[in-house]
Amino acid sequence: MKKNTIIISSLIIILFIVGLVLLLSKKEEVTDDNILYSVNFGNVVLRFKHVDDAIGQNQIVTVEKSMDNGKTFETITDGQVIVSLEPKFIFLNEQLGFAVKKSNNSKDNGKYYGMYVTNDGGKTFNLSEINYDNPNIEILTITSVPYFDNGKLILPCSIYQVKEDLSGYENVAIYFVSNDNGLTWNIDENIKESDIVNKVNVTINGNTYVANLEENETVNSFLNLLPSEFNMSELNGNEKYIYLDNKLTSNPVSVKHINKGDIMLYGDNCLVIFYKSFDTSYSYTKIGHIDNLDDLGNSSVLVKIEKWYNKDVKGENIMSKILVSYFSATGNTKNVAEKVAKVVDGDLFEIEPVNKYTEEDLDWTKKESRSSIEMKNNVKPEIVSKISNLDNYDTICLAFPIWWYKEPTIIDKFLEENDLTGKNIYVFVTSGSSTIDSTYRSLQNNFPNLNFVSGKRFTGNERDEEYKDWIK
Question: Do 346 and 421 lie in a common domain?
């Protein structure tokens, strides 16, 4: 009996130790009340998390990363990042992110330091330098997180100054641009607040849409709340909603029919985004509409709404010019690229090697074949020509076959010779069996300063709507 008792006690101790080790080594699950911001880039999820409080109404935050679509996370930030209790966060791509430590900033040795920037996905952070020399201004307010527009990295700010007629004070919007991925910022006087048109960017679970707004007092009062970020709850299998802290001016009418993508106000403080169309007897105040909205599923969603800016559009609802650039060794990728270009009304550009590939070159089963040697030794073949009119395009579709689970080296050569900084890059590949995941990560790792928006594998048998809905 005594021997059995000892054995049982030993087993309990062992199980306790094993459980403790597993508990300590287990990566943290997604559900966490301390998550301040989260965004998806394919299967990669990046999020800012509150770690602890700090002196002076501040908090310590860190970046956590998931490689399995949010199932598990690990902390990747070296050191501490200290921000205010009401910070602003954004990741513009898998590498470039910002944390606004405080909105209102005083001058320090002729510069303003109110924001952190990371260019390695949240591992390290540096203070951004905002250069603004105005002896009459003491406080500079960072009004929103940075964003890309037409190749420019833009930071919206405002200053509080005396009116021209000396009748009082006013807030004036000013804009800064950065040419070094957010490390330093200089004012751009060509950007005016009047260039901001009646649209907003709506980011839902990491996917960004453009919403066209109505012209009414409700929209005017709603714009004063931006930028805003919140979790919207699911209702009835067709809508997401949130009760706002602020009441808005409202003028509800019987809309009779809801269209997929409608943004409405129910009552005076319930914001609703509809992701299905149906008839209704309820009354709403119209706020706007999102084109090409995806089905949002039956769970709550993280939504961020920001003012939309594009000085070249001037309020016209036009589609950015798209260039479909492709490398095709056998003709399969070329066929798909031509279909995509036709559907999105884009131009075509062939990434053509100086020395064309033969059938023997493409024999992946032979170690001495040209393609095998290029991929093994990272040999980048010369390309016939560069893109001559790159400034004409905001969006680039990059198409190629998958070789050895990644992009062919000629694609790396193409990206090195053509500066796509600030462009929205959509990657699609052709492959009989390989997925795009490892290829997409390879591109992001090799070219961290580029804005890769999304990646897909196409066969050429897709419906036209699939291409059009993907490239928004």
Answer: yes
In a domain, 246, yes or no: yes
User: In this structure, what token pair is assigned to residue 344?
Assistant: 């999105």
**What's the structural domain count of the chain?**
3
Residues 181 and 236 in one domain: no
Strand partners, 176: 155, 187
- Residues 350, 376, single domain; the answer is yes
* Separation between Cα atoms, residue 111 and residue 353, nearest integer Å: 48
CA distance 178 to 103: 18
Residue 145 and residue 51 share a domain: yes
CA torsion 227-231-234-239 (nearest 10°) is 10
Do 158 and 188 fall within a single domain? yes
Instruction: Flag whether 95 is in a domain.
Output: yes
Structural domain includes residue 11: no
The domain of 365 spans 322-470
Residue 99 CA from chain centroid, whole number? 14
Round to whole Å and give the CA distance between 235 and 274: 10
Nearest to 48 by CA among 114, 126, 122: 122
Q: Return the bridge partners of 424, or none.
A: 395, 451
pTM of the predicted structure, to 2 decimals: 0.45
From first to last of its 472 residues, the chain has per-residue pLDDT tens of 545 555 555 555 555 554 544 444 333 333 466 888 887 776 788 899 999 988 878 899 999 999 887 889 999 999 889 998 878 888 888 889 999 888 788 878 778 888 999 999 999 999 999 998 887 777 888 887 887 765 678 888 888 777 777 777 777 888 999 989 899 999 988 876 655 557 888 888 877 788 889 888 888 778 777 778 889 999 999 999 999 887 888 889 999 999 999 999 999 999 999 999 999 999 999 999 988 788 898 889 999 888 765 433 323 333 357 899 999 988 889 999 998 988 888 888 999 999 999 888 888 788 888 888 888 888 899 998 888 777 778 889 999 998 888 899 999 999 999 988 888 899 999 876 667 888 888 898 889 888 888 888 888 788 887 887 787 6
457/413 same-domain check: yes
